[in-house]
Design a protein that fits this description.
Layout: E1 8-15, E2 21-28, H1 31-40, E3 44-50, H2 65-80, H3 85-95, H4 99-113, H5 118-122, H6 131-143, H7 146-200, H8 209-245, H9 247-257, H10 263-284, H11 289-298, H12 303-317, H13 322-329, H14 334-346, H15 349-404
Antiparallel strand pairs: 1-2, 1-3
């Protein structure tokens, strides 16, 4: 059986039935077939050629978790307004700015229109919809409260992504400071210091030790700057690959990050917030506590809290109280264990968990704001010491020469 030819796009020029010039683009398997297709439309083609491929393909937009959060919020709003699910997909899809997200929503809409469940349709895209999302949607469909579940999911996704953004801000700021300091120092050593070195060579006098040290650093930077650059890029690549492929390395980094000064408390608070927020969302949706803890472990964001949550789940499965099991891990603060204990006794566990999540999210927000305010004068100080130190080293010989004269 012959393989069907892949259609290409052909650009054509010609005249219509009235003799007016016209042009356009038509898909086809060959030039002759395109001409025949145009003749059927009453167009006499004078020129037909295959459209050349673009030299640089337009890069596809990535689908970010915040895109999924926006989609969930808009879909929940449409369903609360009484719009049928398939029609809601169409309206939401048209309003999305991300072309890749529009394409994804279109695929889900087609699956649902073909008779599949919403949960089964999104399970085909695990890269964008995790097990927690799919399970809660399935629970909403089965209970007939899909719009309420989507609203809870939207709130959960929005708060989770806002928390992640704050953590990234706290982590990226010091890294950016170090990189800027290295780049500025490198430029001064490679471009500026050598100009002074040429001037000093004509002095015929002994140079200060500090100046000699800086000149030595400059010679070293000029001779090996490309090696340093290659080493930095290589280490960055190896770190990224190790985090993706080596579970042991990733666990070591995640454990160490919790013990860092300043950053460690922020990461711990974010884990408390993520734990309580996820558990509040799943438990309030009617998911059994043991199953809810399984979802919480997957959303922990740190191996230490992942393993602790799995231990809590095993303890709860054997009949222990949630508050007692959490206290036994030794990881969570007294406030969390007490609030969960009160929630269990009063029957308002989801409400207590939600209050804990709000508290620790606010703590992370305040800590990141304080860190940002603290880092600004540190940046100025570090850059001032580096640049000022290099300039002093270069001008010391000139000052000494002036004193001799």
């Amino acid at each position: 059986m012959a393989t069907e030819a892949v259609q290409a796009i052909y650009i054509w020029q010609g005249t219509d039935k009235n003799g007016n010039k016209t042009n356009g683009e038509t898909p086809g398997n060959s030039q002759a077939l395109v001409k025949a297709q145009l003749r059927k439309q009453g167009i006499v083609a004078t020129r037909v050629k295959r459209k050349p491929k673009a030299l640089f393909k337009k890069r596809k937009q990535k689908i970010k978790p915040m895109d999924v959060a926006v989609f969930t919020r808009q879909l929940a709003t449409m369903m609360k307004a009484g719009i049928p699910l398939v029609q809601a997909f169409e309206i939401v899809g048209e309003s999305l700015e991300n072309a890749s997200m529009r394409e994804l929503v279109s695929k889900i809409r087609d699956d649902v229109a073909a008779g599949n469940n919403f949960a089964d349709s999104i399970r085909k895209h695990p890269r964008y919809f995790d097990d927690l999302f799919c399970n809660l949607v399935e629970s909403g469909e089965q209970s007939g409260a899909l719009e309420t579940m989507l609203d809870r999911l939207a709130t959960y996704k929005e708060k989770s992504e806002a928390l992640k953004a704050k953590i990234k801000k706290a982590m990226n700021y010091p890294i950016a400071v170090v990189l800027v300091a290295i780049i500025v120092t490198g430029i001064l050593l490679v471009k500026v210091v050598p100009q002074f070195a040429e001037t000093f060579s004509s002095f015929g006098a002994d140079l200060p030790a500090f100046t000699l040290f800086v000149l030595g650093l400059s010679d070293l930077a000029i001779a090996h700057w490309w090696k340093a650059l290659f080493l930095m890029v290589g280490l960055g690549f190896l770190y990224k690959e190790a985090m993706l492929k080596s579970r042991k390395f990733r666990e070591t980094i995640e454990r160490a990050s919790l013990k860092l000064p300043i950053i460690g408390p922020i990461l711990n608070n974010s884990c408390y917030a993520r734990f309580t927020r996820t558990l509040a969302t799943t438990f309030s949706a009617g998911v059994p506590l043991v199953d809810a803890l399984e979802s919480v472990a997957g959303a922990a964001g740190n191996v230490v809290y992942y393993k602790a949550t799995r231990r809590v789940r095993d303890d709860v499965a054997t009949g222990q109280q949630l508050g007692f099991s959490i206290r036994n891990t030794g990881l969570f603060p007294i406030m969390v264990t007490q609030m969960i204990g009160i929630g269990e006794e009063s029957g308002s566990l989801d409400d207590m968990l939600d209050k804990c999540a709000n508290y620790y999210e606010a703590e992370v927000d305040n800590a990141v704001s304080g860190l940002t305010a603290l880092m600004e004068p540190i940046i100025m100080s570090v850059l001032g010491v580096l640049v000022g130190g290099l300039m002093i080293a270069m001008y010391l010989p000139i000052f000494q020469l002036g004193q001799v004269v």
